TrEMBL record:
Residues 3-305 form the Hcy-binding domain. It comes from Clavelina lepadiformis. This is Hcy-binding domain-containing protein. InterPro entries: BHMT, BHMT-like, HCY_dom, HCY_dom_sf. Zn(2+) binds at C206, C290, C291. SUPFAM superfamilies: Homocysteine S-methyltransferase. Pathway: Amino-acid biosynthesis; L-methionine biosynthesis via de novo pathway; L-methionine from L-homocysteine (BhmT route): step 1/1. Keywords: Metal-binding, Methyltransferase, Transferase, Zinc. Its cofactor is Zn(2+). The keyword Transferase applies.
Length: 364
């Protein structure tokens, strides 16, 4: 039986996305911090395949092709790889399909901001760079298209327009917070413009944490409802806590700790449970993760939304819902923690007695 497409799934129940790719591969030793280009798909295919499998097992309905930042412009600018974007993207498409077919997942081809727009080379040059990214996704027949991590609604509108030629569902997420886009377009107008440009899903990804994303999503939802627009709402937030960057255009990138000392800010799985519930309740129907969202975070989304999705993630065979098997521990103090209520009441310590809770963001 053919798999259901993205829009069919969304019409029935919430969809769980996958999580961080380059940032997680860097921690594991398979991506260069700085360029963040994904040549690992050719250099270390087993490592990338394993990460994608972990997302599938965690309950992701979607496997994104592991080729973020793989456009010729980006590869040339960072001069970090001897591979062409085409070679990386082809390998990424094949691998994503192979892993998705190990379960019931579908494949998403993602387009990201291009150098031609940054360099103000004009509409035609920008469209051409998107078209080159799109070609390989068409060749390998991905199930839907995603434009993600855009800082300007003007650029994502162009990208959406190019993606329409693929005649597949289109998702569009900006990397914006409450300030809106980098040209001063408000959150509300950004959401409306993405929907009117033809995106079936609109929302946000990266740069901000759960609480900031929830505020932005709420404003998007209100604005879309007011206009009578009905795209699905989507969110792929950071896996770190960073409330102090809410009013910084570059979000977590303005933290002194970014990108190499962010570990103390890692969200707990309980925080992900709470976020997934809150995001769903305000109307978000596609919930995944961006930088810092690891497989166990995606598992928390899938386990939290299991009642609405009417299915448990495959990982439940080894990792049942929050605390369920802790009563089997050999230690009595752990046995007593075998309930969701206990875990929802924990206030985690950082283990660093002299550290502040927040840092001072460094803006450009
Ligand atoms: Zn990200």
């Amino acid at each position: 039986m053919p798999k259901k497409g993205l829009l069919e799934r969304l019409a029935e129940r919430p969809v769980v996305g996958d999580g961080s790719q380059c940032m997680t591969l860097e921690k594991r030793g398979y991506c260069r911090a700085g360029p963040w280009t994904p040549e690992a798909v050719l250099l270390y295919p087993d490592a990338v395949r394993q990460l994608l499998r972990e997302y599938l097992r965690a309950g992701a309905d979607v496997i994104q092709t592991p080729c973020f930042y793989s456009s010729d412009g980006k590869l040339e600018r960072t001069n970090a790889s001897s591979f062409t974007a085409e070679a990386i993207n082809e390998a990424a498409c094949k691998m994503a399909r192979e892993v998705a077919n190990e379960g019931d997942a579908i494949v998403c081809g993602s387009l990201s901001p291009v150098q031609a727009y940054v360099n103000s080379e004009g509409t035609e040059a920008t469209r051409k760079e998107f078209e080159r990214q799109l070609d390989v996704f068409l060749k390998y027949d991905v199930d839907f298209m995603l434009a993600e991590f855009f800082g300007h609604v003007e650029e994502i509108e162009l990208c959406i327009d190019v993606m329409k030629t693929a005649k597949k569902p289109i998702a569009a997420t900006l990397r914006i917070g409450p300030l809106g886009d980098k040209n001063g377009v408000s959150v509300e107008e950004c959401a409306i413009r993405m929907a009117k440009a033809g995106a079936d899903l609109v929302g946000i990804n990266c740069l901000y944490d759960f609480d900031t994303c929830l505020k932005t999503l709420k404003r998007m939802k209100t604005a879309l409802d007011k206009e009578g627009l009905k795209p699905y709402l989507m969110c792929q937030p950071l896996g770190w806590r960073c409330p102090e960057v809410e009013n910084e255009f570059d979000g977590y990138l303005t933290l002194p700790e970014a990108p190499l000392c962010l570990e103390p800010r890692t969200a707990t799985r309980v925080e992900v449970h709470k976020f997934a519930r809150a995001a769903y309740e305000l109307g978000t129907r596609y919930i995944g993760g961006c930088c810092g969202m690891e497989p166990h975070h995606i598992r928390a989304i899938a386990q939290e939304l299991a009642p609405e999705r009417k299915k448990n993630p495959p990982v439940n065979d080894m990792c049942p819902p929050l605390g369920e098997m802790l009563n089997l521990s050999a230690f009595s103090q752990i046995q007593e923690k075998s309930s969701k209520d206990y875990w929802y009441s924990v206030v985690p310590g950082s283990g660093r007695p002299f550290n502040p809770a927040l840092s001072k963001p460094v803006s450009n």
